[in-house]
Design a protein that fits this description.
alpha+beta; 12 strands; 44% helix; 4-stranded antiparallel beta sheet
Length: 426
């Protein structure tokens, strides 16, 4: 059913009771120098001679070698091999002649010249399609090869690789330049210079960002424009105290940066005027969950009285689903039974009716049959079950111990640290 809009009193109460949902995160203003070799490389022009030299180095590794599809007959007698060669100069006769000589034709496949012994390769790669080599002797005997197909090789042209080589060489030059610049930058900052002065000494610009949250978003929830795409950069923004400047840091992509935290805006509860629509939506969603829970309880109560969930569900217009057998620890793939109801189900007896939340609302379920665990069926399954139970008991014990510790020693969660842990480094 349609949920009504909340009253002013309900809005105020919900806003007050759920501050975590309507609190603006911590924001920071920063000043930084960011040296990116990719950006610097765009301004550099490598020497043409160096580009040609690199092309000569790369072209062999980037070339596609010629391949030849070969068939072979192997003889142990030179005279028989020569006799076969003289009578087998057409492709039609090659297969036929092999049968006349009671020889099995071997399909060698599509090969490069380096895939063959030197003598065989040199002979086979001199002929055209349908060519037949003279008998060639190896330690195995006398070989006669037939060329069924030729796939020509391809060497990349200078023009096809020029842009790629220019980019790569410019990147290498840029990295060397930036390494030298960071040394100069480090010396300047060590002498007490400001970031603005230090930036001028390495001929780069200062970048400034206002109101950056720990996810790199602005107060509108959108990514901050121009913010470097580096998890380390973002991490340093939120691990550096206000007014302090970081050391020169290097990212995994070879970028270097130094930043200063200029200002910090602590987390703050947003005023109702700014989140009124958001509060109303949250309130309505909460009401939908409460209504679903209430209806689930009514259906559960009615089904308990009649001991027939199917009948009560059909009477009230709910759909029924009969699941495949599920276990406490393993739910079949594509099962409609959510994990949230497994706990209540395995505490219930046969024919008991339980409820639990699901992704779509609330679920009402009845235990139709209890299939006893076959602990003696296989030793592996028994041991696996034993290990799972031990882990659950251990986790429950640790949970109780931590809960007891929190009473005399209250714990608060550092949301910034949690966010940084989730983001991590690239």
């Amino acid at each position: 059913s349609k949920v009504r809009s909340p009253s002013e009193t309900e809005l105020i109460k919900f806003h007050k009771e759920n501050p975590e949902s309507f609190t603006a995160p911590e924001y920071r203003n920063i000043t930084a120098i960011f040296l990116d070799p990719v950006e610097l490389a765009k301004e550099l022009s490598p020497d043409q001679a160096k580009i040609k030299e690199e092309y000569e180095f790369r072209k062999d590794s980037r070339s596609i070698p010629e391949r030849r599809y070969l068939e072979q007959l192997l003889f142990q007698d030179k005279a028989k091999a020569n006799s076969f060669y003289k009578n087998s100069h057409s492709v039609k006769n090659f297969s036929f002649a092999s049968k006349e000589h009671s020889k099995i034709l071997t399909d060698l496949g599509n090969l490069r010249i380096q895939d063959l012994p030197t003598a065989l390769g040199e002979a086979a790669f001199k002929l055209r399609v349908n060519g037949i080599t003279k008998p060639i002797q190896t330690g195995l005997g006398w070989h006669v090869l037939h060329i069924k197909k030729i796939t020509l090789g391809k060497t990349p042209s200078f023009n096809s690789l020029k842009a790629e080589i220019r980019r790569d060489l410019a990147r290498e030059i840029a990295v060397d330049k930036i390494v030298n610049l960071t040394g100069k930058l480090d010396d300047t900052l060590a002498g007490g210079a400001t970031l603005e002065t230090a930036a001028a000494t390495v001929f780069t610009k200062i970048i400034r960002f206002k109101a950056v949250d720990s996810l790199g978003n602005n107060p509108q929830g959108k990514p901050v424009t121009g913010l470097p795409d580096s998890s380390l950069f973002l991490e340093k923004i939120f691990s550096t105290p206000k007014g302090e400047t970081t050391n020169i840091e290097e990212t995994q992509k070879g970028e270097f940066f130094v930043l200063k935290v200029e200002a910090i805006t602590p987390p703050k509860l947003k005023p109702m005027s700014a989140v009124r629509k958001e509060i109303a939506n949250f309130w309505k969603q909460d009401q939908v969950r409460l209504n679903a829970k209430t209806k689930a309880k009514i259906l559960q109560k009615a089904a308990k009285m009649s001991s027939a969930l199917t009948k009560e569900a059909k009477t009230t217009g709910y759909s029924i689903y009969r699941s495949q057998p599920v276990s406490r620890f393993a739910n079949p793939q594509n099962s409609k039974v959510p994990s949230s109801i497994l706990g209540p189900l395995f505490k219930a007896k046969q024919k008991d009716i339980v409820i639990a939340p699901s992704n779509d609302g609330y679920l009402v379920a009845q235990v139709k049959e209890i299939i006893a665990a076959e602990t003696n069926k296989t030793r592996a399954k028994t041991e696996s079950l034993k290990t799972q139970l031990q882990n659950l008991v251990a986790a429950d014990t640790v949970g109780q111990y931590l809960s007891a510790l929190r009473r005399p020693y209250p714990v608060t969660i550092d949301q910034k640290a949690v966010t940084q842990a989730i983001i991590g480094r690239q």
